[in-house]
Design goal:
The protein is mainly α and 96 residues long. 39% of the residues lie in helices and 4% in strands. The chain is elongated.
Amino acid sequence: MSRISEEEVRHVAHLARLAVTDEEVHQFKKSLDEIITYAELLNEVDTENVEPTSHVLDMKNVMREDIPSKGLPQEEVLKNAPEHENGQIKVPSIIE
């Protein structure tokens, strides 16, 4: 007996915005039933002593210490700006 009906296949296809033919519904019904059967096998796995994990590898963020450092001199930065005025880079206006 199938674990998924043709109506459910059509509903899933509708949610995914897929137009499906009657033949495709039959094919998807068979494929989805096989997927559900496989997923149900996972329920039989003994996970009694298995810790929940969010990732299979032991990962953590490696952060460097945030130490301020001296930046480029203002004159050096403004040398590369096409336009500047009063020590600031001048850009075209985008707001009217």
